[in-house]
Design goal:
- By secondary structure, the protein is of the alpha+beta class.
- The strands form 9 sheets. Strands 13-12-9-10-11-14-21-19 form an 8-stranded antiparallel beta sheet, with helices on both faces. Strands 25-26-27-34-32-29 form a 6-stranded antiparallel beta sheet, with no helix packed on it.
- The radius of gyration is 25 Å and the shape is globular.
- It starts with a strand and ends in a 14-residue tail after the last strand.
């Protein structure tokens, strides 16, 4: 059995893995970005090591730094959790090459299944039916038009490297095809990253939690339903999948075994499928890692799936899988505002009370006083509710949401309660992946979340050099650890220059202040389409933002010259972040100076 485990993740999943390690007597090592220094996962671990920097690339995607920490900490295994490096074949291979145990499927398996085009090809080879579509990247727009002519609208274009709702474009008309071409079929564009599928308008999203060991044993732990989604991002998951038509469970179990067998899969994984209204089942993808919703399969079987991962990675055989009992529902508690179209938010948790009682499990990575950073995923906790029947589980879930109390940040708790009350979900289960967007949200009117004017500030820190047992160390501690920080040099308030700052909505709703484009929301910079010094015409694409799983194309509101680009591709930008400065043609700026500043 593994003796020391490094958890290459953060938040609730890092804490959850560390707890299982503690149960098994395995020493645990956490890694953390500066924003997570006081997180529960860091406090729970036997040891914790800082990752340099604060961005995702510098911290949780820094494979070299993580492997180096594993060596220094004496770890013999790395668990990647989900997200971040969990589906990166090169990282899995580097862990093994470093002489460490990789808690997950082999790099070759991830390569065969992690890429969506590769997964389609694998499914066909294994005798499993994917959604009708193409098994090759789109080489030109003629293929898209031909596919639409053959299959009819709607169709969907997906990025092969997408996931979690990213990189999905639904095409409903020839005009949509033209718009897609304008955005992606250009020099430096990403057309070749996409493939085509027929879009199934109303389907359920069902999946199987699977595991296989190195001794040839395979098991489907449970089925799950994950149909309650917003922009292809799951909000509610449950096990076992309710109200399945006759024969569907047998089909997905057989297909899952075929996929695992064909790829020589060893470890835990999830096979995902679409269930059409007419009863047809189609393969969607395989997630070669632990899933967020693994908890509901644990609750109805009594298995610890992280323990099973560690057993398999250590070369042991699968545990016997108990038959499922009762019903379990997972509610994702995110830092998102249901009154603002579920926009991600950030802030400080000023007050917090978690529900408890029979059938209530909480997996979380935050506590009172923690700052929720816009740099990382918005999920802060999972409420897992279990009962002897589905109706009892729903009743308990509503009770738990009534007990939940969080101040300082927005959460979707009111929306989750509305869903649980809806007869289409609670009684008839007339739910598909588009149900929430088309049937529920149009009838909701939640008040937008208003953060308090005064929020807790980030706890300042001080770094100094110390000698411990004859060894030099650099130590960072809270600045107020040894007394008040009030003696720090005061910062003089800046006087207004009197400059008149114009602010007006520009192209695509992006605010323009004195020629500077400012992000109207928290978003990720997906692509920058211009260079400094470049001349642009009105309507030219300047950059692409992604927020709430949707891409937003920012166009020039008038002709001008790109004076300065202030962000980089991949950068996570909070609302009001300056993006780029444009010197508009014929733009006259009056520099008004306040008399007292002369």
């Amino acid at each position: 059995m593994i003796s020391t485990l490094l958890v290459a993740n953060r938040g609730e999943i890092a804490a959850r893995i560390i707890r299982t390690a503690r149960d098994l007597g395995i020493r645990s090592v956490a890694v953390y970005a500066a924003q997570d220094v006081d997180s529960p996962a860091v406090r729970l671990a036997d040891e914790a090591y800082a990752l340099p920097g604060s961005s995702i690339a510098e911290t949780y995607l820094n494979a070299d730094a993580i492997i180096d920490i594993a060596r220094r900490a004496g770890a013999d295994a790395i668990h990647p959790g989900y997200g971040f490096l969990s589906e990166i074949p090169s990282f899995a291979r580097a862990v093994v090459d470093a002489g460490l145990i990789w808690v997950g499927p082999r790099a070759e398996t991830i390569e065969a299944l992690g890429d969506k085009i590769g997964a389609r090809r694998t499914a066909v080879a294994a005798g499993v039916d994917p959604v009708p579509g193409t098994n090759d990247p789109v080489s030109d727009m003629a293929l898209v038009r031909a596919f639409a002519a053959e299959h009819g609208f709607p169709i969907v274009l997906k990025r092969s490297d997408g996931g979690g709702g990213h990189g999905i474009v639904i095409i409903r008309s020839r005009a949509d095809i033209d718009e897609f071409a304008a955005r992606h079929d250009m020099p430096g564009g990403d057309l070749g990253a996409y493939f085509i599928e027929r879009f199934i308008e109303s389907a359920r999203h069902i999946e199987t939690q699977c595991m296989a060991d190195s001794h040839g044993n395979f098991a489907v732990v449970t089925t799950r339903d994950c149909s309650v989604q917003r922009r292809n991002q799951k909000l509610i998951e449950e096990a076992p999948a309710p109200f399945l038509p006759e024969g569907v469970e047998d089909t997905v179990a057989a297909w899952s075994k075929a996929l695992f067998s064909h790829t020589g899969y060893v470890g835990l994984g999830t096979c995902e499928f679409l269930l059409d209204e007419d009863g047809s089942v189609y393969f969607l993808e395989v997630n070669p890692r632990l899933q967020v919703e693994h908890t509901v399969s644990e609750e109805v079987t009594g298995l610890d799936l992280v323990e099973e991962q560690l057993r398999i990675a250590s070369g042991e055989a699968l545990a016997e899988v108990p038959a499922a009992r009762g019903h379990s529902i997972e509610l994702r508690i995110t830092c998102e505002d249901p009154g603002a179209d579920l926009a991600p938010t950030a802030g400080v948790i000023t007050d917090l009370f978690w529900p408890s009682g029979p059938g209530v499990r909480l997996d979380t990575g935050v506590g009172p006083g923690n700052r929720i950073s816009p740099d990382f995923d918005s999920m802060i906790a999972k409420l897992i509710i279990t009962g002897p029947t589905r109706p009892r589980a729903i009743a308990r879930a509503l009770r738990a949401l009534g007990e939940l109390h969080i101040e300082g940040i927005a959460t979707p708790a009111p929306l989750l309660a509305k869903i649980l009350h809806d007869p289409d979900f609670a009684e008839d289960f007339k739910v598909g992946t588009r149900w929430l967007e088309t049937q529920v949200l149009p009838g909701t009117d939640f008040a937008p979340f208003e953060a308090a004017e005064q929020v807790a500030q980030e706890r300042p820190s001080r770094t100094f050099t110390a000698e411990i047992d004859g060894r030099r160390h650099t130590i960072t501690v809270p600045a107020d650890l040894f007394g008040s920080v009030s003696s720090a040099r005061p910062v003089q308030p800046r006087r207004s220059s009197g400059r008149k700052e114009s602010a007006a909505p520009g192209a695509d709703g992006v605010v323009v202040r004195d020629g500077v484009l400012v992000s109207p929301m928290q978003a990720i910079v997906v692509r920058i389409a211009v260079e400094e010094g470049q001349q642009v015409a009105e309507g030219d694409i300047l950059l692409v933002l992604e927020s709430m799983k949707m891409e937003k194309y920012v166009h020039a509101s008038s002709a001008g010259t790109i004076a300065e680009i202030m962000v980089d591709p991949g950068q996570n930008v909070p609302a009001n972040t300056p993006l780029m400065k444009i010197n508009m043609t014929n733009d006259v700026t009056n520099d008004v100076t306040n008399e007292e500043d002369r």
